[in-house]
Design a protein that fits this description.
Chains: A alpha/beta (127), B alpha/beta (89), C alpha/beta (130)
Largest interface: B-C, 19 and 21 residues
Distance between the termini of chain A: 27 Å
CATH topology of chain A: Hypothetical Protein Ychn, Chain: A
Mean pLDDT of chain B: 98
Family (chain C): Belongs to the DsrE/TusD family.
Protein name (chain C): Sulfurtransferase complex subunit TusD
GO molecular function, one term (chain C): sulfur carrier activity
Low-confidence stretches of chain B: none
Structural class of chain B: alpha/beta
CATH architecture of chain A: 3-Layer(aba) Sandwich
CATH architecture of chain B: 3-Layer(aba) Sandwich
CATH topology of chain B: Hypothetical Protein Ychn, Chain: A
Strand order of the largest sheet of chain B: 4-3-2-1-5
CATH class of chain B: Alpha Beta
Helix content of chain A: 10-25%
Radius of gyration of chain A: 14 Å
Mean pLDDT of chain A: 94
Largest sheet of chain A: 5 strands, parallel
CATH superfamily of chain A: DsrEFH-like
Helix content of chain B: 25-40%
Order of helices and strands of chain A: EHEHEHEHE
Low-confidence stretches of chain A: none
Strand content of chain A: 15-25%
Number of helices of chain B: 4
Organism (chain C): OM182 bacterium MED-G24
Number of strands of chain B: 5
Largest sheet of chain B: 5 strands, parallel
Oligomer: heterotrimer
GO cellular component, one term (chain C): sulfurtransferase complex
Amino acid sequence: MQIDWSLSVSNRTLLFVQSHAPHGSLFGQEGLDAIMMGSAFARCTVLMQGDGIYQLIIDQDPTGTNTRDYSVTYSALRDYGVESVLCVQEDLTERRLSEDDLIIPVSVVNRSEVPHILATHDVILDF
Amino acid sequence: MILHTINKPPSHTALSDCLAAMASDDVMLLIEDGIYCLHEVAGDHRAHVLREDLAARGLSGQLPSELKCLDYAGFVALCTQAEKVKTWA
Amino acid sequence: MRFAISVHGGPYTSQSSHSALNFAHALLAEGHELYRVFFYHDGVYNGSSIMAPPQDELDLYSEWRALAQEHHLDLVVCIASALRRGVIDRTEADRYDKAASNLGDVFTISGLGQLIDAALNADRLVTFRV
C-alpha cells in the first residue's frame, strides 16, 4: 500500500519508543495500538529501545499464558506506512539477539546515533 | 534541545539509557524515584532535580551543591525551553 | 504555550498520577493552556468516580474533577484501555450489557486518535509513566 504523505493531516513527525518486553506487561501491546493510530495521521518512526526489542522476537507462543502474540502485528506496520522500525545494535548484543531472531526487518543503528534520532522527530511518544 | 525526565533509581537502566541518548545541549530532570540518581548525575551540568520529589524522599540535605533544584513551575519552564520531552522509565 | 499530558500509571499504584496532577496545576498557574489530558494504560483508573481513598490521602478523581471544572479541561480516557480494565461510561455499559458504569462526568471515553491529535496539536506532550 502506498501512502501519499501530502494527504496526511500533519507534517509533524512522530517517534514512538517501545521500551518494554512483551507479555510481562501490556505497555508494548497498547503502545503498538498507538503506533497504528499515529500512522494514520503523521509520518511515524518506531524505535525498539532496550527491552522493547524483545517484542520483535520471532516464534513467540503465548498459548499457555493466554496473553496476546501481537508481534505478528508488527509485520503489518509497513502496510500502514510505517517504513522505519529501528533498533540499537548494542541493545541487541547485550541481549544476545541478532536480526535473524526478529519477526520483521529492522534498521539497526548504533547507540551513538540515538541522540540524532530523538532530535530529528517533532514529538516523542514513550511506551 | 530535549528535556529528558528520569523516574527510576540508578539500579534501573533508565539513567544509563538516558545518558547514552542525551546530546551535549540537552537537559535532564530527575523526578519521582529518579531522585535517587542524584549522586550519579552530580557534576553533570545538564542535570536538574524536582524539589518536591527530593523533599519527599528525605534527601534535600544530600543535594550536591552544583545540581539545579526546580519546583513544578520550574519543571514547566524547562518544558517550554526544550523543544520536546523524552521520558525514561 | 499549549501543553498535552499523557498519564500511564494507575492511581495509588505509582506516583505517575500525582505527578501529572501537580504538573497540570503548575502549568495552568503559569498561564499555559492544557489542551488535553489523555489517560492510557492503568492511567484510565483516574476516571473512576467510585474510588474512595482514606480521608488523609489525596482523592485523585475529585482533584481531576475540580481542576477540569475550573479550567474546562478535556480529560480523555482511552477507550481500549478503559474497557478492558472495567472503566466505562453509561453508553458503553449499555453497549456491553454491564450492570454499572463508573466513569466520572468530567471524563470522556474516546479513541487513541485523541492521543495522536494531542501529540500533533499541542506544543509539548509530557508523559507521566510508571
